[in-house]
Design a protein that fits this description.
This protein is an alpha+beta fold. It is elongated. Strand 6 and strand 7 form a beta hairpin. The chain folds into three domains: about 80 residues; about 80 residues, no CATH class; about 60 residues, no CATH class. The chain has six helices and eight strands.
Length: about 230
Amino acid sequence: MPKEWFRMKLKKAYVFLLSFMCLSVMFCACYYLSYKRALSQFNKNAIERSQEFAALEENVDPTPLLTAENSESETVDILTSEVVLPTTTYVLEVYDMKENTLESNEFNAPGDIVGLTREGVIEYLAEYMRDMTLSEYNKGLISYELLSFSDERVVIRKSYNEDFVPYRFYIVVKNGFVVVYNSDLKSVYRYTHIEAKNLPEKDRIALSLGIYVDSLEELYGLLESYSS
């Protein structure tokens, strides 16, 4: 009797384990198929987004009549243009011109460039350079360029040379007080309580034109001379 009871328990455990394994396999299969479907839809949306942008830039109706020969030709051009997909391999190279070193890393394609064509990526990089961050400026970002482009792989390079940074701080008078700006001339590094009216005439003239400073040592030395 104990043996039969043990066999029944063992059989039930075996059935339970087998059922659990089958359900696990089915769940994994459903999850994988759902993931592939979602990724395919995401890629499709990215391509459609690029097609709409291309149509707007070329002043072309994104859904032209196929009976018009010129419309068919333009539609084919749009459909065959390569764009950055969520699955595209994104390679970022960082080149230090001063040390002559090159570092390369692979990432997922950034959301900012997904759906863009080669021309779109080039324009994105140009806009980044026109309005670069303060940290990039201080590191000496010289160029941000596209080296290669396809829907499978995009290679971009940032080149730095800190020796090319002309200055790091800008000192000027604002509302009667000496103010220190960062090198982007937008963000304030430090407000001072130094009143311009209490400074010698030559210093007031220099500050009215603006003074560029390259280091913290030079900056603090100059502010100390104004305070003494």
